[in-house]
Amino acid sequence: MSETTSKVPGWLKVIAMVVGPAAVMTAGIMGAGSTTALVLAGAWFRYDLLWVAIITLPFVVVCLDSGARVGVMSGHKGMLSVIRDEIHPGITWFVLVVMILFNIFVNMGQTSVMTDSFLAMLGYYPPVDGDSAEYAAFFRNAQIGLSIFFPIVILALLLTGGYQRAQKVMTGLLFFMFICFLVVALKGFVELPAILAGLLPRVPADLPVPGADQTRDAFSSLMGIAGGALAAAPILSFSYFTSDDKAKPEDLPRYFWKAVISLGVIFGLYSTLVLVAGGYALYPLDNHANIDKVYQAGQVLTHAMPDAIAALGPKLFAAGLFACGLTTLVVVAQLMCYFCLDAARMDWSYRDGNRPFKVLLALWIFVPAVIAPFWQFPALLKILLLMGLNAVIVPMAIAIILYLINKRSLMQDYKANLGRNIFLVASLLFSLALAGYKMAGPSGYLWSLLDTFR
């Protein structure tokens, strides 16, 4: 045993034995997108969409575990290399283009969450009617300045090794926020009958926003929750994580149970706690339909604090959401480096001597961040919109995994069995239903496009 390994606390060794790469992916999924979608769903619709968070869990476990199996049985190739070799090179480039276009907006959204969260921690909030033009200009300039400053700091941390130290602080902050959600959710369980009723699948009526000519679309919230869990990028990128872990075919059953624990149990518990906390703490507020900003959603944590320091709740929520945004931004940038370099048949490993990886990493952090302030939309609604858009491209990712894991020449004895195929097909049908509604439903993209020509 090395000196470094001997210094690892015993409890961390136990966790590492249980979770493995699935824990890394779980941490990425439990980011600003999922947290935002769940908190807002609770604030707007109480517990009525809790069933969505639960029903997606087996789909997430099976889809990501299937991606891991494809990575292992391919000889630890990247997923885009597998697609090129086993399906068609054109599909590889199509997937890459879709991922590039989508994830540019994802990191724009993460940057917006970070800037608004940081300003909320300092007591500065987006201008509203009645605020002076000077304040509006100050807030706008602050957003632009921070969108330039944060990428510089992030890149400096990543390229000098300081990000590992920063991660320890962020991990502690996120763990603290998780405990706060737990406290609020436990208080919320006094409303157990209403919570249990939220497990029955139904889509609540849209929620009118008082004083505004708009509504909170229940189906958009539903898609935000589903898209935060069942996302295209994790499905297609999990093979890179298993490749780094050097898993062997005989390890696959153990990897499946690790995925069940991390992606099923831990993420499922987190999702339930956050939505219940939002429903208990925010839904009863008179302005619950108006909540769409970081400092407003931060009131969810006031119930976790003693009365004397309850005012710190929104600031702690803002700090936690800042950490979520930062972590997700870095993970997305890393994944896009994997995709881009793998598609170009280049070394996609993240190591000190891989200069192309570092150049791409800088671009994927800096470019979306710099253009983020010019996307005028509340930060939390940007994230919710992107989670909904994700649902449109998820069927493509699941269809690819479904094809590959049933290819005997690739998977050999680990070709999908009947049970796995049932879950994968159910996942595909579920994602197609969501995508179809998003495209052609009453407020879908096709209807919106038609409206522009009327």
Keywords:
454 residues, mainly alpha, Sodium/glucose cotransporter, two-stranded antiparallel ribbon, 20 helices, 2 strands, 73% helix, globular
Largest sheet: 2 strands, antiparallel
For the record, give the distance between the C-alpha atoms at the N and C termini, rounded to a whole number: 71 Å
Percent in helix: over 70%
Which architecture per CATH?
Up-down Bundle
**Rg estimate, integer Å:** 22 Å
Tell me the strand order in the biggest sheet: 1-2
Classified by CATH, the class is Mainly Alpha
The structural class is mainly alpha
Number of strands: 2
* Topology order in helix (H) and strand (E) letters: HHHHHHHHHHEEHHHHHHHHHH
How many domains is the backbone divided into? 1
Shape descriptor reads globular
- Classify the beta-strand content into a percent band: under 5%
Mean pLDDT: 83
Q: What's the total helix number?
A: 20
Low-pLDDT runs: 1-18, 445-454
CATH topology assignment = Sodium/glucose cotransporter
